[in-house]
Structure formats: structure tokens, C-alpha cells
Design a protein that fits this description.
- The structure holds two protein chains of two kinds.
- By secondary structure, chain A is α+β, with helices and mostly antiparallel strands.
- Chain A starts with a helix and ends with a helix.
- The longest helix of chain A is centred in the N-terminal third of the chain and has 39 residues.
- Chain A contains 15 helices and 19 strands.
- Chain A has five domains: 159 residues; 87 residues, Immunoglobulin-like, CATH 2.60.40; 87 residues, Immunoglobulins (Immunoglobulin-like), CATH 2.60.40.10; 30 residues; 143 residues, no CATH class.
- Chain B is built from three helices and no strands.
- Chain B is mainly α.
- Chain B has one domain.
- The chains are: A alpha+beta, B mainly alpha.
Amino acid sequence: MRNDVRYLILALLGLCVIIALAISFSGPLLYSLETDVFPSQFHENTNALKAQEINSTTDLLPLMQDLLDYSGPIILNVRIQDIDQARRDLELFAKDRRLNNLIIKLDMNESEIEEFSQSSANQEKLLQELLNSSISLDQLRSLEIQYRDQNNPTMLTSIQLQGETLRKKIRLLYEQYRVESSKIVTVSKKVGLDTTSQEQSVQDFELYVNTVDPQQQVQQIDIPIRRTSQMSLLLYPDTGSYGDTIRCFGYYFSLYGYRVSSIPGKQVTLFLDTTPVGTVTTDDVGSYTVDIPVDKITSGTHVVHAESGLTQTDQRTLTIVPVGTVTTLTVSPSRKAGEILCTGTVTANQPVRNAPVELVWDGTHASRATTDAKGEFNAALNLPNGNHTVQARFTGAGYPLNPSESDIQAIDISIPLIPFIPFIPHVDYSFFVYLGVLCIFSLFVGGAVYYLWRTPGRTLFSGKRAARTELSGDAGTEVPAISDEGTGADIPPDTHSPDDIPAGEVSLFQRYAGLLQSAGLSEASHAVYCELAGRIAHDLRISRYRVLTPREMSRSCRERPYCGAFSRLVSVYEQIRYGGSLSAPVRTEFETTMQTTDSQLEGEHH
Amino acid sequence: MKKKNLAAIVLSVWLVIISIFMLLAWRIDIEIFFVLWLIGILIVVELMDTRFSLPPYLRYIKYLIAAGIVLFGGIVTQKILEILSK
């Protein structure tokens, strides 16, 4: 195959790879439902699994039908006031996790079955709240009868307000339940399940809501109010939110016929619902003032009145409006191993003071912290090694504040390489870090330089020595030996090199003469060439001069003064070595050029 | 077949294999691709290197590898800085 064709195929292959990368960069489609096949057990198409499992009548459908049938009886029992049975049914409903387990097992997290399961879980929570609200409503009814008997208008009003709140909540629960139920019915009908029980439960819920709804009730609380005209009460403002201050003030006075007389020095206690929030004494003109800070007061409508002995004011209504909150969290590693520091704030247009904050790590473990006067909280958590997530949650329970959560913070807890020593002062190590990083990068640069300059077969630390040895012809050489005395006929030619004899002791010509007598002109000329080539290679820093032919060697020294003599020597050497010309004129010419080259080389070195 | 042609084909096949596996894993990472390419070319050059001679194409490849090593050092340094900044 021609080189052009090879390169063309190579270029086409590369082009195909680039096109495939470009096409599938955003979202490569490896499987499709239309052409789905399973070539081996290692291939799984989750989309196909979802489609298959939806049609399965053996595993999923019975579980789904069970979940469908739970909610109907629970609502019916709530409606007929059979609370115990409703609670038992709800416990069974809550414990049934078989569908969830199957979904996790089959990795169907984004399927309609997962939506069904999620709606079912939401229904379970709604039913739990409905049950609790129903119980609370019953208790309120009992209390209402009790306070009516006691002729206590304050408590009756308070109970009436609480009852209204509960009814609103039940109505809201019904709306949410209806939405979740419609989702469940839609999915169930798709897979052919019987949804009668589910639809019936919605109707039962609606009937229950109508039963408890105050608009439908004809019950009116007839409160025999015990009025007094001796003490007044005003609130300003009568609506507030977290951080506001409500001023409550009034007068204590007596009526004498048509005259009004203020009474100073009377102790007046102010009540918020049934809780006393302050006691003051009337001043010289019989007036009193109490400030109520809106702090830990639940949102909604509250009843405020004042009492002084048997004298009571009229009841005033105070509305507390809920406010949204923002919770922040910052997580930083502590100097103590395994410990992290959590700091953050809870604000609702202003700092939320002395409020409890939950620090939840890994979604399962919780720890508590409390905000200070600035709304800030600090807490240290001890976590095991590994990656963790931490989140701060403010529930708003007891406050006129909506709950909020911080962003989830991730942190890696690992064992420090250097154990913490408390008496070492904190030092900024960033300079050393950058120096270390620079050193590492320099190591790579050094490695790259070494890679370029290294010689194959040569180690790093014996490089110079090995190079010198190679230059002197010791390693792997085929150079015949030159006797140190010039008469070394008994020395085998392949066991010595010219460098075995120190250059300073015996001259090149003497060694040549000795080898000429012992091994002949061819070997002697070769030995002379090897030595001169070695010296020239050393001068020109040619490391692989032995792989060069004599002519290549002569060409490589063109810029040197000895090049002419060496080229002539090479020419004569080729005649002797390769041409087999061993005549006296050739020998004479070789000796002449040898001496010329040798002397010029020595002159160059000096 | 000449050594340099064989080396080019082997390296191309290696890069195609890397690309296919990256596609299968839905993870296309240019850094991993580069490091695997560097490993491949280092092995190929080490296998085709000669003891006593250095052909020009091999010398140019070695320059390329040296640049690759420096770039690899840059990637390692960047990763170290990323870890330290966490």
C-alpha cells in the first residue's frame, strides 16, 4: 500500500473521530427504545426497563393497588370520628414501603411509577395532618362546652379563633389531597388499576370538609359578655410582624353619675390570649401603657385584654403577620481533627434573636444551635472521615416566621497529614505552597530536558563516564588493538583498543608501526583511523561517531583546519581497507597524511 | 512496513480506542485524553527507538514528547493548586 493511501486512511479515521465527538458531545445516545437489544448482561437500558416494568402485572401492580386502597378507609374513619381505626390504618399505610424499595431496585427514579409513589407519600403526610387536625378540633369542641359552662368569654373567643384556623387548615389539606389524588388516578388508569376507592376518598374528604366548615355550621357562640366600663384598652398598631412593638394603653376610671374620675395606683395585668405579658401600675391620671414586642408569638389572630382585680377591659384583636426568613450557613474546617465550624445567620428583614437552628449533616443527623442577639449562630460539629453535607434549618416553630433552609454545604473531612500541634503559631504557608508547586513544575521541565538530551542505554548518574568510555572506544568496539610498545604481536587484535595505551607515553606513529609489523597495514590503518576519529568526535562532540562511515566522519569536520588532512587520510584509508591496496606508495601516503592530521589535531588542541 | 508508519497507525488506533471508551462512558475529558495520548506516544517511541542512531523524525517526536511532558507538568500543578484551594 502506498504511503499516500495510508495517510489518507489515517486522516479519514481522525476525521471520523472528531465528527463523532462533535455530534455526541452534548448528550451521546447510546441506546434507543426503537432499536433496543441487549447484547450482553452488562448492557442495561433504563428507559426500556421503565417501559417494561410499567406493563408488568406481576410485581408492581398489586403493590400500587394496595396503596390506592389505603386512603379511602382512613378518610371514612376520620369522617365518622373513628379515630383509633383511622390511626391504625394510617400506620399500615405509612409502613408499606414495598413500592419504594422496588423502584430503587429497578432504578426507576424518573418514571411515572416514581411519581405515583411520591404522590402516595404526600397523601400519607396529608392524611396524618388531617388526623391530627381532626383530633384537635374534637378537643376544641370539648373545651368550648367547658368554657361555655364556666361563662368565660375570653377563652371562648380564643377557642373560636383556633377552631377557625383549624378549619382553614383542613380545607387546605383537602385541596392538596385532591391534587395528589388526581395525579395518582391518572397514573393508575394508565396501567389499568381500579381507582374507585381513591375517587371515593376524595368525595369523603369533601363531605368532611363541609361538615366542619364554619360557613356550613349554624352553631353560633352566644357569649354572655360581662362588660365593664371602668377600664379601657387600645392597641396601636393592631397588626404587626416579627420585630415590631405593639403599644397597649388605656385608662382606669370610675363613673360617678355623669362624672368620670381617674384612679391612679391600680395594678393592671395585660393578657395575650390567656398568657400574662406584663403588669404595670396606673399613673396619676389613671393611664397605663404596656409594650408587647412581637418576638416569640405565633402568627395569626390573638386576643388581648387587661385585668385589674375583677375589672376587665374589652377584648381587642391583635393580628400577627408571618414574615419570610433567610438562613445562611458557612462551613469551615477546624484546626481540631474531625471537627468543622458552622457559622451562619437567620434574618427576617432583621436578625432573628435567640432562635433555635437545626444543623443537619448528611440529611440524617441533626445538631442544635441558637442565634445570638445579632441573629448569628456558631457551632462545632464532630464528623467522621469522608465527604459530608451540612445544612442549617430554621423551622420557625413558635415564631411568626416562615421556615427557611440554607444552601447545602459540602465538606471533606480527612485525616491531616501533619497532626495538630497547639503551641505552633499560625503561619501563612502560601509562599511555601507556591514554591513547592513551582518545584514540582520545574521537575517536569527538567524531566523533559533530560528526555531530550539523554542517550539510550545511559543512566542518569553515570552519563559522563559512559559517554567518555564510548568515545574512547571501550564499549562494544570492533577496533583492533594497538600494542602499547609497538611490538605487541601476541595481543589479539580484538581485545585492545587504541586508548589502552596512554597517548602521552607512546606516539600514534609508534603504535602504528608496532601494529603494522604485527597485524599488517590494513589493521594498523584501521586503528589509526579509529583513534583519529575518536579525537575528532571528541572535538566536535559527536556521541555516535562509530556508526558514521569514514566519509561521513570527514564531512562532519569541514569547518576545522585539520579537515583537509583528515579527508585525504580517509581517502587513503579506504583504498587500503576496502580497496585492498597495500603497495608502498599507498602506505607512504597514508603515513604522511597520518602525521599531518595528527600534528594538526594536536595543534588544534593546544 | 516502515517503523514510522507502523508507529503512526498504532498511535491512531490507541486514540480511537480512547475516544470510543470516552463516548461509552459519557465522559469526554480533554485532560485525560491528553495524558493517555502522552502515555501511548512514550511507549511507541521507546519501542521504536534505536541505540546508535537518531533519525530526524524520531528527534522531532522527542521534541513533541518533551513539550507534552511540560504540559503534563502544568496539568499536575493545576490539579495540586485546585486541591489546595479546596
